[in-house]
Automatic annotation (TrEMBL), chain A:
Keyword set includes Transmembrane helix: yes
Name used for this protein in its record: Lactose ABC transporter permease
Membrane topology of this protein: Multi-pass membrane protein
GO biological process: transmembrane transport
Organism per entry: Paenibacillus wynnii
Keyword Iron-sulfur among record annotations: no
TrEMBL record, chain B:
The keyword Signal is assigned to this record: yes
Signal peptide (residue range): 1-22
UniProt xrefs under PANTHER family: ARABINOSE-BINDING PROTEIN-RELATED, SUGAR BINDING SECRETED PROTEIN
Protein name: ABC transporter substrate-binding protein
Keyword Signal belongs to the record: yes
Keywords, alphabetical: Signal
Pfam families from the UniProt entry: SBP_bac_8 (PF13416)
Superkingdom, natural source: Bacteria
Amino acid sequence: MSIRRKSVLTGWSFVLLSVVLIFIFYFYPMIQALIMSFQTGTGSNLEFTGLDNYKRLFSDAMFFTAVKNTFIYLLVQVPIMIVLALFISVLLNDKKLKFKGFFRTAIFLPCVTSLVAYAIVFKYLFAGNGLVNTFLLNLHLIDTPIGWITDPFWAKITIVIAITWRWTGYNMIFYLSALQNIDNSIYEAAKIDGASAVRQFFGITIPLLKPIILFTSITSTIGTLQLFDEVMNITKGGPGNSTLTISQYIYNLSFKYSADFGYAATVSYSIVIMIILLSFLQFKVAGDKNA
Amino acid sequence: MKKSFALLLICMVILTACGSNSGSKNTTDAGNTGSKSNEAKEITIWAWDPAFNIAALEEAKKTYAAINPDVKVNIIEYAQSDIIQKLNTGLNSGTTKGLPNIVLIEDYRAQGFLQSYKDSFTDLSNSIKGTDFADYKSGPTSLDGKQYGIPFDSGVTGLYVRTDYLEQAGYKLSDLQNIDWKQYIEIGKKVKEKTGKALITLDPNDLGIIRMMIQSAGSWYLTEDGKTPNLANNEALKQAFGIYKELMDSNVANVHADWSQFVAALNNGDVASVPTGNWITASIKAAETQSGKWGIAPLPTLPGNDKSVHASNLGGSSWYVMNVDGADTAADFMAKTFGSDVELYQKLLTNIGVIGTFKAAASGEAYSQANDFFGGQKVVSDFAAWTEQIPSVNYGIHTYAIEDILVVEMQNYLNGKEIDKVLSDAQAQAESQIK
C-alpha cells in the first residue's frame, strides 16, 4: 500500500463515523420525505399517487396564502433587520464608546432566550389589554387599543417586531467580528483624505463587509422561510390565516387536520426549492467570484 | 476515488438495512396485537387538563384498585396538542413502543384517528354497550358498527349569564329561557347600554360558536357521510354566519386572542354572558367573588330554523384503548369504571364537576343538587336534560381543516363580501383540499 493510499484511508477512517451518522440522520430522512411526498392518504393509509400532491400544491389557496405571508415577512423584516444590525454594530465598534461589553451583551441577549418563552412574553405584551396598548393609551398616542394580535394587519406587524427583536443581535455579532478585521489604517487614511463618517461607512465599511452581508442575508432568508415558533405561539397563524407561514401550514397538515403526511412532505419540499432558488439569486446579485 | 465510492455504497447498504428493518417491525407489530401477554400488570393512560380529565382518572384509579389491586395504573398528563403529535408520529412510525394503553381523544378528532390508523385501536364492543351512553356520542366513538371509544364527558352547551348585569338592564334569567340568537343580541344591546359591558367575547380564530349553532340544527360542515363538504347550500351555516356578523356589527362583542384571555374576560366581569360547553363551569367558579351572580340558560336557537333546538355540543372527548400489550387489562379497567360504574359518576360530578354521558348515571342524586354559585339553580339536571336533546351529527375527519378555510371566509364576510359567495368559495376550496 502506497503512502498516499494509506493516508487517504486514515483520513476516511477518521470521518467514517460522522459520514455514517450524517447519512442516517440527514440524507435518509430527506430521501424518505421525498418518497413520502408522492403519497397521499390520512395517517398510515398512504398510497402512491405520483405527482398528485404537487398538482394539488398549485391549486391550494391556503398554501399560496402561507407563501405570500412568508414572503411579506422576508421582504419587510430581513432588510430592516440587516440595516439595523449594521448600524448598531458600527456604533458599538466605536473606539471611544464606554461600557461596550454591556451594550453588546444587552443587544445579543434576546437571541439566547428560548424561542417559545419570548414568543409567549410577546403575546402578553401585545394583548388587547397588554403592556404595549396600555403604554400607548397612557401616552395618548392612540384612542382605542390596537388589535395587535386580533387584527390581520397588526398581527403581521407584531410578528415582524418579534423576529426583529430576537434576531438583530445575532446578525450584529457577525458584523462586529467582521468590523474588527478591517484594518484601522484604512479609516485613518480616509480621514486624512477628509472623508466624512458617512462617506467612510458607505465607501469602506459596506464594501468590505459585503461577504458577511451576503452570508447574513442568506441565513436570514432561510430562517424566515422556516419561520414557525413565533407564529405558532403568538398568533397560531391567525386571525384568518393572515400570519400563517409555510412551516406552520406543514404543522397544520400533519397534526391539526387529519394527518396528511404525504402532502405535508410535498409542502416541505417546496421550501427546499425556494431556499435553493433564493440563495442562488442572492449569490448572483450580491456575490463576487471570491464570495 | 474508488474507495470513497465503495464507502458510499456501504453507507447505502446500512441505510437500506435500517429501512427494511423498520418495515418488518411494522408488520410483526400489527400481527402481534391482541395475542401475547394482554393480561398486563401495568397500564398507562394519557390525558390533558389536570383539573378535569386527570382528576377524573384519579377517581377511576381509586375505584379500580378495589376491583383489581394487582394492576398498576400510570396516569400521564400531556397537553392535548402534544397527545395528538405523539399519537400521530408514534402510529405512523409503525412501532407501538412508547404508546399508552388508553388515550383521551377529542370527539371532533376521533374519526380521524380511527379511520387513519384502523388496526391501532381495540374494538370494545364486548366490554361496553354504546347505547348505554348519550346518543350523539355514538357517531364519533364508533366505526363500521364497532364501538371503539368509551364516551366520556358531555360537551353539552348552555348560555352562562351574569344575572346581576341582566337585572341592571331590566331582564331576569327567565327571560332567556326560549329565545333565539336575534333576541339574544337585542338583550345584549340593552345590557351594553345600561352596564357598558360586552355581551359576549369572541376569538376570530375560533369558530366554536358557529359549530354550536349549526349542530343545534342537526347540521355540520360535512354531509351525513362525513366526507362531502356541506357549506355552500347549508342553511344553518348561512344563518350562523349572519348571527356572527350581527354580533360583531352591533358592537356587543369583546375580542380575545386565546384561552387565558378568554377566561380572564369572564373572571374580570368584562362580559355579561358566554355560550359554551359545560366544562367552563370550573373556570367560571374560579372567580369566587362572583358567586351567586351567574345563571345558566338554555342555548338560543337559530331564528327561523325549525330544526334548531335549545341544546348543542361543544368539544367533549372520549377514551380509547390502544392495540398494544395490555389491551385486555386496559379494556377491563375502562369497562369497570367509566363504562358501568354509576357511583363513580356521582363522585366525578360532586368532586370535580364532570358531567358524563353515561345514561344510567343521570338519575343519581348528585345530579339533582342545587348549586349556590349559580344562585341555587340545579344546573346539572338542566344540563342532563339538554344532553338528551342534542342532535346527532357526523363530525367526519375534517372539522379543523374546514374551519381554517371558514375562518378566512368569515373575515371576508365581515369585511362585506356577499354571504352566498363566501360559502360557495369555501365549498370550492374545501372540495379541492379534502381528499
